[in-house]
From TrEMBL:
Natural source organism: Winogradskyella litorisediminis
Positions with biased composition (Low complexity): 463-483
Keyword Translocase: no
The protein, known as: MORN motif
Signal peptide (from-to): 1-21
Location of region: Disordered: 452-483
């Protein structure tokens, strides 16, 4: 038996060892399907991280630009990611289908040499690849919706140690198009010969042969594109970790952003999180699984040159921890704190932490939390990756049991249960069978077990008994029923969908049938709401326009105006501004503004209130201020005619939902983080009129469907 297991392991290693062939040195232009191994990014050695990407010891990618990949079967195959996407493999270890949770797909086919020969997406784009006897691509044919669009022919030459790849396009009209030659050395691009000119590049590599710098040759002030690499063999290396700041693209008008430096080089693979203790940050180094404490001192005194060395270790050897201080706690997973996407409950002495990481649910447990509640640092573990997350616990001495579903206790007042013949209870809510507590008869005292969804088991047997449970209720919450929508387009359960009811069109993101995330609702007579939604209610920042032309721009809670906001008439003149509670204005902050009180460049109150500030370069901001910085809600117009209206946080940064109009008239309506587009949103392009929905990066480009 042991010999059979060993053979299976060897076969699996061979099987996945021969997945998609990569030869960057001799065939650097060969296409790659779904990139998920270090070779796909042309990385060598025992790489741990490079340019923010993180790999496991086998070279499989586990983190890339906010996407975390899971390999829970220990066979080298991706089983999922934090977006809920799906992966399908062939028998040889090639990914042949990648399906977004929204439903759109990319499909791939490979030949007997493990070379990609065909790919297709759900939009109808197809690509066909042909190779020569040396496994180098020589032809690429692109069809759009079955119609020929372009052909690209590749030829090869060699000059010294350089491989020269020449490309000639043939356009849809069968006329020659773009033509160029590319020189590669050791797999890196070092020269381009194009119609616009010849360009040469310098590539610096580390001792492992991986790129660490790239810049144009023969340019004294050439911009450098540096890459920071770390290796598993660096785990015991003495390094200097520092918390500090940087500005993207080296521009003066960009705010400084938090970052981590290792021996003076910025490393985006380390995570920075808020600490449970005041005036602190935490840094997590996944290579050594170490959490560091960073005392901030006075952040207002920090400059771009500020460096705070990480010398205080909070925890080492645990990727998941729970920290508590002064009656508060924060749970960290791989250095990240997902407070806003989390539900937690206490079941017996244990804490259950259920969180939606992007779109996939995962449940963590802190064992015996209540027994060690005075212990400031506790260990957390992953309990289940089942998105349904049905947990239960028995108190044998008191004959009680507790049930937690997706981080919330069920509403015991609406519950009853019937036993299956094997002794497992079927839990009913509102007389509907929903859950089965598997292994209930043999469950040990105060130990957490996982249940499962009901699937008609009572229909195939006679139930033994039907009773109403009497467990003690630690937390009582009524589960919300699925929204009864007539979905016309997309996925109105768990994705992006569109609903039309009574001349009202709702384009939004959904979770469990309820609007959650962002919503774009068009009412009759040109009324609309664009903004954030939680559980079918306006919640967060939103822009509401009535059919009269009047509008409200500001914060919402549970469907009502709540927080900072201002109203405008049909000509977009401010009528009121201040703090709202439950739909009513309770604190006016607009007196100085409406009275046109002017001090310097400010009209109104630009220290701690509402006003308009005109900058010397022609930019204009009107909205709320705190400590003389933009805060809460406001609108900023640049002198180049671009504009932003939306949420601001302390420090004057755009964080939350906002509407950004580009110089060319294109408009993005969606989420911002640290002054940059980042997350769910909808982009309408001025030139084409097309609207694109999904998840966007900080350059305003869609990186994935939702």
């Amino acid at each position: 038996m042991k010999a059979i297991k060993t053979l299976l392991i060897i076969l699996l290693s061979i099987q996945f060892g021969f997945s998609q062939v990569i030869d960057m040195v001799n065939a650097p232009r060969n296409p790659i399907g779904f990139k998920h191994k270090k070779e796909h990014f042309y990385l060598k050695g025992d790489i741990y991280s490079s340019a923010g990407k993180i790999f496991d010891k086998a070279g499989n990618i586990i983190y890339n630009y906010g996407t975390r990949y899971y390999y829970e079967n220990n066979d080298g195959r991706i089983t999922g990611n934090n977006y809920g996407d799906e992966f399908k493999y062939d028998s040889r270890g090639n990914i042949i289908k990648f399906k977004y949770k929204s439903g759109s797909t990319n499909e791939y086919k490979f030949d007997s040499n493990y070379l990609l020969v065909f790919e297709k997406n759900s939009y109808g784009d197809e690509k066909f690849y042909t190779y020569d006897s040396q496994n180098r691509i020589i032809k690429e044919v692109i069809n759009k919706k079955g119609v020929f669009y372009q052909q690209r022919d590749y030829t090869y030459d060699k000059k010294g140690s350089n491989i020269i790849v020449s490309v000639q396009y043939l356009n849809a009209n069968k006329m020659p198009g773009f033509k160029g030659s590319y020189h590669y050395k050791n797999g890196f691009l070092v020269k381009e010969e194009l119609a616009s000119g010849t360009y040469e590049y310098i590539v610096d590599t580390d001792k492992k042969g991986n790129k660490i710098n790239f810049y144009a040759a023969n340019e004294p002030n050439a911009k450098e594109f540096k890459t920071f690499n770390r290796y598993y063999s660096d785990a015991n290396k003495n390094i200097k970790i520092e918390f500090g700041y940087y500005k993207p693209y080296n521009t003066k008008d960009q705010p400084k952003l938090e970052t981590v430096f290792i021996d003076g080089e910025r490393d985006s693979a380390l995570k920075i999180s808020k600490s449970v203790r005041p005036n602190e940050k935490l840094i997590y180094d996944g290579l050594t699984q170490t959490y560091y404490v960073i005392p901030l001192g006075n952040p207002d005194d920090h400059t771009l040159e500020t460096r705070i060395e990480a010398t205080s270790i909070l925890s080492k050897g645990e990727p998941m921890i729970s920290c508590s201080y002064d009656g508060k706690f924060i749970n960290y997973v791989h250095g990240e704190n997902r407070v806003k996407s989390r539900e937690f409950a206490f079941i017996g002495p244990h804490m259950v932490d259920y969180r939606i990481d992007k779109s996939e649910g995962r449940t963590y447990v802190v064992d015996n939390y209540q027994n060690i509640k005075n212990q400031s640092l506790k260990t957390m573990r992953l309990f289940t990756t089942n998105e349904n997350s049905i947990l239960y616990l028995r108190e044998l001495e008191k004959d009680n049991f507790f049930i937690v579903v997706e981080g919330k206790h069920i509403d015991y007042k609406k519950a009853r249960f019937e036993y299956l013949t094997n002794g497992d209870p079927v839990i009913f809510l509102d007389n509907k069978p929903l859950y089965i507590l598997t292994g209930f008869r043999t469950a040990q005292n105060n130990k957490i077990y996982e249940g499962r969804p009901y699937n008609g088991e009572l229909d195939t047997q006679n139930s033994v008994s039907s009773v109403t449970p009497t467990p003690k209720t630690q937390t009582t919450q009524t589960a919300s029923s699925p929204t009864d929508y007539n979905c016309s387009i997309g996925d109105c359960q768990n994705g992006w969908g569109q609903v039309k009811v009574n001349n009202i069109t709702t384009d939004a993101t959904f979770k469990d049938g309820a609007i959650n995330g962002v919503a774009y609702i068009q009412y009759p007579n040109n009324a609309f709401y664009h903004g954030e939604y939680v559980n079918n209610r306006r919640h967060g920042f939103g822009y509401y326009k009535w059919s009269t032309g009047n509008s409200y721009v500001g914060e919402w809670k549970d469907g009502k105006q709540h927080g900072l906001g201002y109203t405008m008439d049909d000509k977009n003149y401010i009528t009121t501004a201040g703090r709202f509670e439950n739909g009513k204005l309770v604190e006016k902050q607009d007196q100085d503004y409406l009275n046109t009180k002017k001090v310097g460049s400010c009209t109104g109150e630009c220290s701690n209130g509402f006003g308009k500030y005109e900058y010397s370069n022609g930019d204009v901001y009107f909205g709320f201020f705190k400590n003389s910085q933009r805060y809460g809600v406001g609108s900023y117009s640049w002198n180049n005619n671009s504009a932003y209206t939306g949420a601001y946080t302390i420090g004057g940064k755009r964080n939350g939902f906002g509407i950004y109009t580009y110089v060319d008239g294109s408009v993005f309506r969606g989420m911002f983080t640290d002054d940059r587009i980042d997350g769910l949103g909808r982009m309408t392009y001025k030139k084409s009129g097309n609207t694109v929905k999904g998840v966007f990066n900080n350059k305003g480009a869609k990186i994935r469907d939702y």
